[in-house]
Design brief:
The chain is an all-alpha fold. It contains eight helices and no strands. It has helices at residues 7-10, 12-26, 32-46, 49-61, 66-71, 83-96, 103-111, 116-139. Helix 2 packs antiparallel against helix 8, helix 3 (32-46) runs parallel beside helix 6 (83-96) and helix 6 packs antiparallel against helix 7 (103-111).
């Protein structure tokens, strides 16, 4: 694997902080499967191949079926996802694509399924995977696999 640089080696204290946030997210009480599916969907949007592979594997490990993992890319047209998952995916896409015109609608949908604390947690999930994706893309030299722990 070829890298321009690695945050883990070249800015270890910042990497440790990022990794600590990821650990905190996983201990937040949100379902692990939902976190992994959100991570997968955001990684698909951002085009981080390493993260797509990793989060697909993590989702399966957390009990998500191959069918659901495969359907995340087209979740809006799939009947495999529950209303709360669909609201979380819409929120993740709105924040990732900075869809200011859809933020109120997406927020109202979240409120039907999640508490204010959970919405805040979901927001950090989305922000964190977007940050990891951007780190992976920045480190990566085209034509190689991205490597980082997230």
């Amino acid at each position: 694997m070829a890298f321009r640089f690695t945050v883990a080696a070249d800015a270890p204290s910042l990497y440790a902080t990022m990794f600590a946030t990821t650990k905190a997210i996983r201990g937040s009480g949100l379902p692990a499967g939902l976190i992994h599916l959100i991570d997968l969907r955001v990684s698909q949007i951002n085009g981080c191949a390493f993260c797509i592979d990793m989060h697909g594997k993590e989702a399966r490990h957390a009990g998500q079926s191959d069918e659901r993992v495969a359907a995340v890319a087209a979740w809006e047209g799939s009947d495999l996802f529950l209303p709360d998952e669909r609201a979380a995916f819409a929120w993740a896409e709105t924040l990732t694509r900075t869809g200011h015109d859809r933020i109120d609608e997406a927020y109202r949908a979240l409120q039907r399924h999640f508490s204010a604390e959970q919405i805040a947690q979901l927001t950090v999930v989305v922000a964190q995977i977007n940050a990891w994706n951007r780190i992976g893309i920045a480190q990566h030299i085209e034509g190689t696999a991205v490597g980082m722990a997230a």
